# Entry
Amino acid sequence: MSEEEVEFSRKVVRILAALKSGMSAGEVAEKEGYASKKSLDTFLRRKGFERPEGEYVPKGIDRGGLPVPEGAGSKEYLIIAMLEAGHPPKQIARSVGFDDHRQIPEFMESRGYIWDEKARNYRPEDSDARTGEEKGSGSLEEKEEVKAEGSAGTSELLEHLPLLRELAEHREELVDLLEREKAQGRVPHYAVPGNSLTKSIYMSRKMSVLIEEFSSARNVSQRQIVEAALVEYFRRYGYADEVESLLD
# Structure
């Protein structure tokens, strides 16, 4: 609905508020200076309102489709209706008599409404409680069934507690193992500190050939191969702390 179709002037708001408070159309017409309630009706219709069920609402807005509960005051109804119609907050604030659109949240909260982000509008705060009651309702059989399912799940969990404790105690080793598996196929590189020196060792000729071939194929030096192999060996066979201290 465009802004031209409905005019929420201060006078319109005042008239709607008076009608909502229980005054008859004739009393409101007399108070506002109209000759009759028909003249008042003509004025409101000219401003874009209609009266399908005895209550004036903006044209084209179905009250049944609005999140407006029965008994809502005139300002609350107009704020919700205008938000539903897509009017900007500043215009809504002016229409209901506020100086600043930031007064709207305070007013609606004081009237028991909260902002519904999904609906992009206000709704009664106690609707959450009603929804919770509806969700909590159910037959005794259904509740017992849920309880039984919960007990079965707890029992199954208790059966696995020893295994979970064992895994927790060896968490670091498991993480290290998983990291090694993830890195499988990649050549590790370790920045081993200290001065270099020559150390002669004897090994199988075939092992020596493998080192040379690996060095050429993976583009790593023989020193890097030996140092990486020793780091992994020490880590696996009881010298993990010493190796970590060396690398740190």
User: Anything to note?
Assistant: Residues 1-5, 62-72, 129-135 have pLDDT under 50 and may be disordered. Residues 140-159 form the longest helix (20 residues). The two ends are 70 Å apart (CA to CA).
